[in-house]
Fold:
Amino acid sequence: MSGVNLKTYAENTWCPGCGNFGILRAFEMAVEELSGEIPVENFVLSSGIGCHGKIVDYINLNSFYSIHGRALNNLQGMKLVNDSLVCVGFVGDGDIYAEGISHLVFAAKRNADITAIVHDNRAYSLTTGQFTPTSPSHFKGKSTPEGPPEDPMNPILLMLSAGATFVARGFAGDIPHLKELIKAAIKHRGFSFIDVLQPCVTFYNTFPYYRKHCYKLEEAGHDPTDFNAAVEKAKEWDYSEDSEDAKIPIGIFYQVEKPTYEERV
Amino acid sequence: MSGVNLKTYAENTWCPGCGNFGILRAFEMAVEELSGEIPVENFVLSSGIGCHGKIVDYINLNSFYSIHGRALNNLQGMKLVNDSLVCVGFVGDGDIYAEGISHLVFAAKRNADITAIVHDNRAYSLTTGQFTPTSPSHFKGKSTPEGPPEDPMNPILLMLSAGATFVARGFAGDIPHLKELIKAAIKHRGFSFIDVLQPCVTFYNTFPYYRKHCYKLEEAGHDPTDFNAAVEKAKEWDYSEDSEDAKIPIGIFYQVEKPTYEERV
Amino acid sequence: MERSVIIGGEAGEGIKEAGNLLSRVLVSIGYSVFTYHDYPSLIRGGHNFSSVRFSNEGIYAPVRKADYIVALDDRSVKRHRGDAKEGTVWFLDEKVKEEVEGTVVRLPFRGEAKGVMRSSAVLGALLKAFRIPKEEGLEVLKDLKNFEENRKIFELFYDSSQEVEEIVEVEGIKGEYFSGSEGIALGAVDGGLDIYIAYPMTPASPVLHYLAAHKKEFGIKVVQPENEIGVINMVLGAAYAGGRAMTGTSGGGFALMTETLSLAGMSETPSVIYLAQRGAPSTGVPTYTEQADLLFSLFAGHGDFPRIVVAPSNALECYLFTREALNLAWKFQVPVIVLSSKNVAESFFTQPLEREKVVEEPKLWDGSGEYKRYLITDDGVSPLAFPGTKGAVVKSNSYEHDEVGITTEDPRQIVEMKDKRERKRETIRKFFEGREDTVSVGGDLNSKRVLVTWGENWGVCCEVGEELGYKTVKPNYMEPFPVNRLKEELEGAKEVIVVELSPAGQFEKLLNLYGIKPTGRFRKYDTRPIFKEDLLKFLSGRER
Amino acid sequence: MERSVIIGGEAGEGIKEAGNLLSRVLVSIGYSVFTYHDYPSLIRGGHNFSSVRFSNEGIYAPVRKADYIVALDDRSVKRHRGDAKEGTVWFLDEKVKEEVEGTVVRLPFRGEAKGVMRSSAVLGALLKAFRIPKEEGLEVLKDLKNFEENRKIFELFYDSSQEVEEIVEVEGIKGEYFSGSEGIALGAVDGGLDIYIAYPMTPASPVLHYLAAHKKEFGIKVVQPENEIGVINMVLGAAYAGGRAMTGTSGGGFALMTETLSLAGMSETPSVIYLAQRGAPSTGVPTYTEQADLLFSLFAGHGDFPRIVVAPSNALECYLFTREALNLAWKFQVPVIVLSSKNVAESFFTQPLEREKVVEEPKLWDGSGEYKRYLITDDGVSPLAFPGTKGAVVKSNSYEHDEVGITTEDPRQIVEMKDKRERKRETIRKFFEGREDTVSVGGDLNSKRVLVTWGENWGVCCEVGEELGYKTVKPNYMEPFPVNRLKEELEGAKEVIVVELSPAGQFEKLLNLYGIKPTGRFRKYDTRPIFKEDLLKFLSGRER
Ligand SMILES: Cc1ncc(C[n+]2csc(CCOP(=O)(O)OP(=O)(O)O)c2C)c(N)n1
Ligand SMILES: Cc1ncc(C[n+]2csc(CCOP(=O)(O)OP(=O)(O)O)c2C)c(N)n1
Ligand code: SF4
Ligand code: SF4
Ligand SMILES: [Mg+2]
Ligand SMILES: [Mg+2]
Structure:
């Protein structure tokens, strides 16, 4: 499917080496591979504001470059009026775990048939490096020079308890794996959530750590239909640990079929 | 401590038989019993908007009658500048599970040393009966005459995964039990959460059902220090079930000690 | 011939329903009815009342005093004793202890009927009093869920109550009996609504409830999201995808939407927000009225972008202006605010309603060449295409952008886009310029004394204006403000009195902004409507 | 003697730091420096530049043209070729391929120094060019984290670069070199700040960062909550409990706060919101400037309630006005908005800064009788008490309320409370009435031609005004608007030209509202500041 031209003329202004490049590449590949089944004009992207948000300027597909925290609701609105659209949100960890957390929780609760890809660099990067909900308490940001006075949230656990029907974690440093996750998420009917570990080489370069500690759920025999097992796996790494024996599972934690919001409305 | 006069001259405008009376009574009793340890002038209440919110007009204690969804943040602000205050939020299910869900999740994440008492009548009652996040899908509200097109959220599960250090459920129909929960919540250092099953006799009279199906965790040998057990108990009743063999646990699901937000800031 | 009836009792015992049932009967026998519903923010108890005013001539305003007062409890007597005239006839529940003067009919309303069913009891008593045939009452009761039970109660009271005077059938039906909220809902549907997305908030909720109840019949979707920010962003998403979407809220919810309002302006996404004002600031007096969100609605959202604000004053205008609002939003790709207030939204009017679908096609992409969402055009309006269109890549953007919709920080492109949006503002201004109907005129048309007002005060101003010899003038659009048309109507006026419901005089400030300097002002802000007596008194006071 | 220097390169290679280091040296040898920092919304790459303008006389505005241009890359040469004059000296990285005219010094900036360290290289080259002794440079480098490394690079470039002209030490230190953001932060601290609560947003974040970095020294708390709605509600809670609390944000974040702004008005909770404007609407042009949130800031929030809006135009005013803002908020128990814009916030000014704590005691409860949070008073201000006070029950309320703070729906009590708040508005108006400093005046004081402006354009208007013979006038308070004082200054003017950064002319609308009709207008909205040349050209164009 090399016929799809997904590049725009926009100048890419991410820092060299940024984890966002991996997400961009994985998504492009996923679209190319899906383009036999899904006409490209049916894709709609939406994004928050932040380094992550720039991705929609770089992809030659329909897009609604939204404001901080709201992209998932723009997508839900689209899907309600045109069910043939394939709605993918590129959102940030500051964006959707802080500003827009209410919308994330409810997109999951409703089982809206959209996909949320979280560029989780564990920093507000475009605003020059403050802590986000997934920053560990040793993260020294500009608003908290001694680290945030609170522990990180565990978005995987939160999404499981909010009712998401597809819960996954990817790593921007493993593009083929991430591509497969994105394809699976897009194909999943209902709300799909991928927390993508996306190193920010400028404010929080987690590449080496993730490379060392990530392992794949599917290779570890995890059963993604088992909710309790998913909870256990979600707890395996809690976003604050940075020890040498941490194990960070990536892959699909949980997937279940349920009627979608759009079907029920 | 019968010396404490907690009544105001405000006319009570709740419907006769409303579950809110039980919460009011339980709280008054808790304050009276605690008044030996806590000077009454150190209590500060805050509330959202809704039938539940009226409670602060009826209690002769410091109060900040807030707007829809925001009371917990008002309390967090207070606590940050005056640590001797004892901050109690009376919030609604529409109020804090919908409009203000972001604040609830973060109060829990931060372990802010405040108490949230949710008047969970599973309806927007003051606005005449629309569905809320805890309404079951068979709830026929004014905005969804055929029932909401989404399943209810499980706030107990959500709070557990958000990091709350005191997670409980009470029933407005069991005042002595609720009073003890409120006392324990207030005494708990850190974020305390009580989802109070509060029947709304006008829009969703759940009194008979709750009376029949509630049982007490402490009588069932539940260990509130065991997170996994708490998750299991949270899942026992999921806010959508209304069958004849449902079992609804009330009491403390989980309690753990952790440094508070105010200590860490 | 004109009469007015007050029905008072507790919340939950069918006060509003009684008012509406009575009104419907009166409308069906040829009267013009205006009904004001007064209720506090509670569900049971307290004191509700409905004031039904009817006449064989068109009326659109509430009066304080009543010829008939139905009181289901003592509190109602106390509250309305001052509203009685000489000769007022009282219908009291038999348990009422308060004393009243004049004719009294005692009936066992509470003893014989439960809850909302009391409305049928009240209807029975009043129709008997007016010697209106039983059948007229049964006709309106037919639509109720529990027709049989209601019928029984109605007949019981009809049969056991007393006649007072004859209210005869009059010629010519004056119109439909409907509320502003129903007007909004029907206008939206006839303007092509695809989806209504709203979070409950008084006094906007009746629109949500009405549309939800009739969504199948109207072929629309109705959804209630998690909060107002979620709502308005769904609205924008739906519109971007080609669906006509609308929301409704009150001041607090609107405040939450303002960040996204600015996004609608920047992304040029058609959107309609119905903003029903209530007692403010903050939670305020939620079930009562005010007009103090005017300047907020005009200037809400950061940055400069064109918008349209329409301000209906009665049910028919609600219908017409909302229907137009949807078309305007899509014609110009701007946010349109429909600005009402509690007594436009929740009062019932008798007006001719001729429903007609009016759905204009917006400027659409012709399919040739590369699609550019923000094509620079002379009129500032770029052709629309929607996702799912082969050959088009539709890029909407909250950042400043180039024609394609890709982010730009280039000063020249920024100026070009801002100029485009300002040209659109001008296009909109010109669209309305010269249109007669941007301003309504009434009262004594030849008078040099003018009442200038907006929104819910229109009815009372016109009536009082006619009686006391004032011309009345009302802008129907607050943005673009029909300044020339308004000045035309004010030309030569010796006296210009601004009538509004804002303690700080927001409407007067707006007039000032456009160089109009009123000579006097009547500001009411007890959150109750301007009763006819209020304005009469104020103006008579001035004459002396 | 006046010079200007442009330093251009990529984000992340110390452009801003180079500008500030140079400026600090220049200030330390007696110059007045104004520095404009221009950067797009990205973290690495792109094109940043800083424009350092200095003179032995006070200067407060940016110029386009530069006497010295340092370009670390080709893009910088391309972007700034048009900013060169005849005789401009270029300092180019040795790898730059673009050709330039005139004197060129080539240096291995990128080869020898990494990232932000290049700032020291640039400093070395420029100090050498100016024949400023090395020691002066070392003095400012001392404060850096990596002093040793920076020193080495600085000396390497100082030693290897060329002299161009002598910039001599001049007499009398002109002041401190600080930004508007630092002014805001210090003003808040000296106004008694207890807690700063904010969510990051350009261009308000520097205040958050500065206060967070110095919180121990200042004895304050600094917290970053989940979103702006969470923020402003914490601010109100903190204030209710007796803490002086403040937040800072930009347009989008402010929009989210407006529901709670109305709550502050209703509950009469003292609160200070710093609103730093940027390119709008929506996400807009986030690192550039605009003045199009003016009317939003004045009318944001549903309902009528008094507020104060102050608009500083430079770093010193930021300090003074913010310090006053905290005191005003507590004196009158109202929300106060400190309204700046990107080039007030992020430009650096050289101004005398005399720090002094000014913390006025608010009106406090005297402890006698029953405490009533909303006691009706003549001036509309009720005595404060805070929770934790024995004998006081402090009840704050978002609903309309009685004196104690309990909800009311009674029309008489409603009017009483609204009247009280309107009296407070009047008290505030009177407080400012007659105060000279509500309006600043500059330029050619005797001219009948007037430039009227606000905020960040003040410096450029004054300078150009002086040169071309215009009087310049600026309101420092946008609410209460000093209309009389302004009219006084405009009296007899033949020409009144309004200078602002809003395509739709928001400031002009505000002037219109108060009956002031400008005769001409200069509106810039490419989101860049008004460079001196821009205004000179516009005004000269008019003369011909
Ligand atoms: C309402 C609002 N608040 C604040 C901002 C400022 N802002 C822009 S980007 C950003 C950080 C985004 O962080 P994240 O979502 O993690 O994105 P990243 O840059 O890390 O990819 C913030 C706070 C904004 N644009 N809008
Ligand atoms: C921002 C905002 N949106 C909507 C409302 C309208 N409103 C008032 S009360 C209420 C329902 C509250 O429901 P809940 O919190 O469950 O309280 P209950 O009445 O059931 O006790 C709503 C939506 C409001 N006051 N503010
Ligand atoms: S700042 Fe971080 S997230 Fe942003 S582009 Fe650079 S590396 Fe990527
Ligand atoms: S409506 Fe329901 S929640 Fe409200 S007062 Fe009545 S019974 Fe209680
Ligand atoms: Mg991030
Ligand atoms: Mg509720």
In short: Residues B 14-15, 18, 20, 51, 121, 125, 200-203; C 43-44 surround iron/sulfur cluster (ligand 4) (CB under 6 Å).
